[in-house]
Predict the structure.
Amino acid sequence: MDNNIMEKITSLCKRRGFIYPNSEIYGGLSNSWDFGPLGVELKNNIKLLWWKKFVRSRNDIVGMDAAIISNPKVWEASGHIANFTDPLVECKICHQRFREDFKDQIKNHESIHKGIKIVWTEAKKFNLMFKTFIGPAEDKADTVYLRPETAQSIFINFKNVLSSTRVKLPFGIAQIGKAFRNEITPGNFIFRTREFEQMEIEYFIPVPKNEIEWQKHFTYWQEQIHDWMENNLGLNSEKIYDNDIPDADRSHYSKKTIDFEYDFPFGRKELFGLAYRADYDLKNHEKKSGKNMKYRDMESGEEFWPHVIEPSMGLDRSILAVLIDSYKENNNRIVMSFKSSLAPYKAAVFPLLSNKPELINKAKSLYDILRQSFMVAWDDRGNIGKRYASQDEAGTPYCITIDFQTLEDNTVTIRERDSMNQRRVDFNEVDSIIYNSLK
Ligand code: ATP
C-alpha cells in the first residue's frame, strides 16, 4: 500500500468533514480529534448497527449506559489501580519517555540522537488512568478516575440488571461508551488516543465444569466478532488475523485472550479483543464491597459467580479500519467505498441545471421524500462530473440526477458509486432501491 496513505486519509477526513484535529485554532492538542458532519454519521451508523446486531435482535443481551466517573473503590477491586500500568523508560539525554515494549519507537529515537550512545532509565510503572477531583478540594480523599474501560460499570450493575429484568444464564450486558487512558505514546491518527469509545459485552455463563464448556462460548464469540468485522464493517478478511495471546502476555484477569489484528498501513495492530475473564470481576467486587454479587439459579437454589466472556470492540479503531479499507484511488479518482449501511449519505440528489426552477422543484421533491428515511445530500453546484467526484469522496453509494427527460416521463438517472454504472429508473422506485441496498 502507498506509504502516504495515512496522510491522504487524514487530509481527506479534514477536507470532507469526517475528522478534524481538536482545538486547531489554539495550535491543537496532540492526538485529540473531533468528528465532523460526515464523521458523526459514520460513527453513529456503526454504533447503531452494533446495537441492532448485539442487543436489539437478540433475546439474551440487554444494554446499559453508565456514568464515566465511579466510586474509586471500583478501580481498586478491578485491579486497575495496582495493575493498569505501562512500563516506561526515559531517554537520559532529552528526557522523552517511551513504552518499554514499543521497541520500534525506541530504536527510532536512538537514530534521532545520531552517534551518541543513549542511556535509558530503568523501566518505571506508569498508571494509565486519568485522575480528577470531586468537589472544591483537590485532595487525595476526593480523587476519582475517568473510567479506562466500560466493562467495570457493567459488573457493578450486575445485580441491578438481575433484579430489574428477566435475564437467565447465559446472558450478556452490552454497553457503548467513552473510555479514557493516559496513553504514553498515542498516535497513528485515531488508532491510539487518550479518549475513545468502546463497544463491549460482558457475556455471563454458568460455572464451566470443564474447558469445553467455556471454549464453546469463546469460539462462538470469536465467530461473531469475525462476522461483525467482515460482514458488518465490510473489512477485507485477508487483512485480519487472530492472535492467541500467550500466558505471559495476558492481562492479570484473563485465562484466554485473542487479539483480532488488522493490517493497518503502519503495521499489524490490535483492532479488537476477546477475553475469558472467568469469575475475576464479580468475585473481587463482592470481596471489596461486601455485597453479594452472585447469581442464584431459580431451579436448584444454588448461588455462584458466573464466568465471563468479554468481546471488546473499539469504536474509533472500527472507524479507522473502515476508512482505510474503503479508501480507493485510481487515476486521480478517490472513492470511499463504504457499505451502504455505513455510508454517511445514502444518496445525493442533483438537478441537472441550477437555473431551471422546474428541475430544481422536481429534484427538491425527491430530496424531501428520501430525507424522510435516509441521510441524503443535495448538490446543484458545478457540473455533474464534479458532483459525482465530490460524492465519491464522501462515500455516497448513489447519485440521482433530475433532467429534462424526468419532466416528461418521470424517470431519473441513478449512478452507482463503485461500478459508475448509470441507468434510468422510475422516480418512485428510488426509495426502494436505496432501502434494499442497506440490507
Ligand atoms: P492496546 O494493546 O492497543 O493498548 P489494549 O489491549 O490495551 O489495546 P483493551 O484494553 O483490550 O485494549 O481494550 C479493548 C479495545 O478498546 C481495543 O481492542 C481497542 O479496540 C480499543 N482501545 C483500547 N485502547 C485504545 C486507545 N488508546 N485508543 C483507541 N482505542 C482503544
About this structure: Residues 85-127 form one domain. Residues 149, 181, 183, 192-193, 196, 198, 270-273, 312, 314, 316-317 surround adenosine-5'-triphosphate (CB under 6 Å). The first strand starts at residue 19 and ends at 21.
